[in-house]
Design brief:
- The protein is of the alpha/beta class.
- It folds into two domains: 9-187 and 226-251, NAD(P)-binding Rossmann-like Domain (Rossmann fold, 3-Layer(aba) Sandwich), CATH 3.40.50; 188-223.
- 46% of the residues lie in helices and 15% in strands.
- It has a seven-stranded parallel beta sheet, with helices on both faces.
- The relative contact order is 0.15.
């Protein structure tokens, strides 16, 4: 399917590896020029070179921390009129008892997984509306649909973003600007491997046992390839997806058993 994106410009954060890089690559394959951000300069430069070489599009790397306002300002300086924004603050899932979460940690989670994304949306959306096209996609996690003990801090921040997006979406869609959230499950990324090793250490078990347990609990029976997230995001950014907005789209191989 031709997604109608050739020549568009996109900002993708957290794009040096994992799901962010997969999203950037899928967009690049559709002819989208990229401005990408990540904290580690060497990894970001390598990702930019790889994507540019594979697709022929222009890829502009901006090293920095998406959660720092000054770095986001540099990102917008590099791409002041994006047609597409993919917010990927990353995944940091260390279980913490609710009683042990201090005020500073609550505030840090709200900054990293709510304020950073929603502020950037507020900055780019007016220009998208004026130009008559915009696609905004936030990457979250599938378990915001089924909150778990030990993750009150991450649920609070991510659900705040989903709530804000749902309200904002109604104001933006008359201008052909959509905003959606993709909620991935277990994708085979470096972040997943780090999390699985951490679970094994905390649970006094083996990495292999944790992997087998996770796969058995997934109806698909496997971890997903990052491209399966990237291609979904690319479709949500397409010309054809202009009627879909304000949604939290779970992509987890059937783990979530709810209907809505």
């Amino acid at each position: 399917m031709e997604l109608g994106l050739h020549g568009r410009k996109a900002i993708v954060s957290g794009a040096s590896k994992g799901l962010g890089k997969a999203c950037a690559l899928s967009l690049a394959r559709e002819g989208v020029d990229l401005t990408i951000m990540a904290r580690t300069r060497a990894d970001l430069r390598a990702a930019a070179d790889e994507i540019a070489s594979a697709t022929g599009v222009a890829v502009q790397p901006v090293a920095g921390d998406f959660n720092v306002a000054a770095d986001r300002a540099r990102l917008l300086d590099a791409c002041p009129e994006p047609d597409i924004l993919v917010n990927n603050p990353g995944v940091r899932q260390v279980p913490t008892a609710y009683a042990d979460i201090g005020e500073a940690e609550w505030r840090q989670w709200l900054n990293d997984h709510f304020l950073s994304s929603v502020t950037l949306i507020q900055q780019v959306a007016p220009g998208m509306c004026e130009r008559g096209f915009g696609r905004i996609v936030n990457l979250s996690v599938s378990f915001i649909k089924f909150p778990q003990s030990g993750f009150a801090h991450t649920h609070a921040a991510r659900l705040a973003l989903s709530g804000a997006v749902a309200a904002m979406a109604r104001d933006l869609v008359p201008h052909n600007v959509t905003v959606n959230t993709v909620c991935p499950g277990l994708f085979d990324t470096d972040a997943l491997q780090t999390n699985l090793h951490g679970h094994a250490e905390r649970g006094n078990t083996t990495y292999e046992a944790i992997v087998e347990d996770r796969k058995q609990n997934c109806p698909a029976g496997r971890f997903a390839d990052p491209s399966e997230c990237g291609d979904l995001v690319a479709f949500l950014c397409s010309a054809q997806a202009g009627f879909m907005t304000g949604q939290n789209i779970v992509n987890d191989g059937g783990v979530y058993q709810g209907i809505f």
